[in-house]
Design goal:
The protein contains twelve helices and 16 strands. By secondary structure, the chain is α/β, with parallel strands linked by helices. The chain has three domains: 64 residues, Winged helix-like DNA-binding domain superfamily/Winged helix DNA-binding domain (Arc Repressor Mutant, subunit A), CATH 1.10.10; 132 residues, Nucleotidyltransferase, domain 5; 160 residues, ATPase, nucleotide binding domain (Nucleotidyltransferase, domain 5, 2-Layer Sandwich), CATH 3.30.420.40. The strands form four sheets. The chain has a five-stranded mixed beta sheet with strand order 6-5-4-7-11, sandwiched between helices. A hairpin with a 4-residue loop joins strand 9 and strand 10. The longest helix is centred in the last third of the chain and has 25 residues.
């Protein structure tokens, strides 16, 4: 069984998630004694990991001192490695984007990735302390061992990428599936607000989802929870969602079957595709959106989340597809209760790389709290 987090770790997580927050509010949320809360916050203040943000007046008694993360205590690097593009970013502990650098998309050897990171750190962070590196990888990964088990995009099989990069840069390196990384970052950087559960679905050349339950990432028994792209679409065939609804599948199908498409210069994105859609293109995008919306509706029925996000890179967006996905989701979502699960779209261009930085922050904060507890 996993070891329960220490008191310092629990307090630090609460400060990150609920800043600005007072010690008395921390006592309520943690169910710890005021003495335990004070000891933990004093340790974190003395190390400079958190800081005082000012006072909050209350109706009775003394004003309360508010606490929050010190965003400049250290910095993290996030790396997006997926089918849309490869991107390196640096953020502070609050998720603020400091710098970025795009690197060649497609296959990338571990050495090439290390060289790109070295170049980025030399040019973008020569005077900044880097606390951790996070890799958000399109593929199957083992976050505990740091192995990329399989990435078709990168052509990696059983690559101990975290250990290789950590040895090269003497910095902790964490890896995560790209959908899970994005889901974790919404908690760390606050996009899900006060929600306790959320589905963060990712759409592009692949389709997946990160599942947040009780503000924790749900991985499933074998770490494969949320692989919705591999789910059957339920039309009597054996096709899975990615074979019908992913941008890669749509572009390939229309290149082969739509006579209106110029085979010598075919559309490269769904945005280009829908500028002047043929009847077959319109039908294909609508069908893809329908199956995507039904899949999200089924997820909402299975997990009953507070909110659902559908995230896409800006260049992969098809308004036709997204509109149909929303219609089908609303039609097939759970209707036995009056509550409606909202669905929102995210198309920010840095979100996967910032997601990598976000889960690196999450893991780094646990390490910092543990180091404090181990100090004698």
């Amino acid at each position: 069984m996993p070891t329960p987090p220490s008191i310092t770790t629990r307090i630090l997580r609460l400060i990150v998630e609920h800043a600005s927050i007072s010690q008395s509010d921390l006592k309520v949320r943690s169910a710890l004694s005021m003495s335990a809360v004070s000891q933990a916050t004093n340790k974190l203040l003395n190390k400079g990991i958190i800081r005082e943000l000012g006072l909050r007046k209350v109706s009775m008694g003394r004003p309360k001192t508010l606490l929050g993360i010190n965003p400049d205590f250290t910095y993290v690097i996030g790396v997006q490695l997926n089918a849309e593009r490869n991107l390196i970013v640096m953020t502070d502990l609050a998720g603020t984007l400091i710098s970025e650098q795009e690197i060649p998309a497609g296959k990338l050897t571990p050495k090439q990735l290390g060289d790109a990171l070295a170049k980025f750190m030399k040019s973008s962070a020569p005077q900044r302390q880097i606390g951790a590196i996070g890799l958000a990888i399109s593929g199957i990964v083992d976050p505990d061992s740091g192995y990329c088990l399989r990435s078709i995009l990168l052509d990696w099989n059983n690559v101990d990428i975290a250990a290789q990069l950590s040895e090269r840069f003497s910095i902790p390196v964490f890896i995560e599936n790209d959908a899970n990384a994005l889901a974790l970052a919404t908690v760390v950087f606050g996009q899900i607000g006060q929600a306790h559960s959320a589905i963060i679905a990712t759409y592009g050349q692949g389709i997946g989802a990160g599942i947040i339950l009780n503000r924790q990432l749900y991985r499933g028994r074998h770490g494969n929870a949320g692989e919705i792209g591999n789910g059957l679409i339920g039309d009597g065939t054996e096709r899975v969602l990615e074979d019908v609804a992913s941008s890669r599948a749509i572009l390939h199908y229309l290149w082969e079957n739509d006579p209106s498409i110029d085979k010598r210069n075919p559309p490269r994105t769904l945005q280009e595709l829908e500028q002047n859609p043929s009847p077959l293109t319109l039908e294909t995008l609508t069908t893809a959106g329908h199956h995507l919306g039904v899949s999200l509706a089924n997820l909402s029925i299975a997990f009953d989340p507070d909110i659902i996000y559908l995230t896409t890179e800006p260049q992969t967006v098809s308004r036709i597809l997204l509109d149909q996905a929303l219609q089908s989701f609303q039609k097939y979502r759970l209707r036995i209760t009056p509550q409606v699960t909202p669905i929102h779209f995210l198309t920010e261009s840095h979100m996967w790389a910032q997601g990598a930085a976000g889960f690196a922050v999450n893991r780094l904060l646990d390490m910092l709290a543990t180091d404090i507890d181990n100090d004698k």
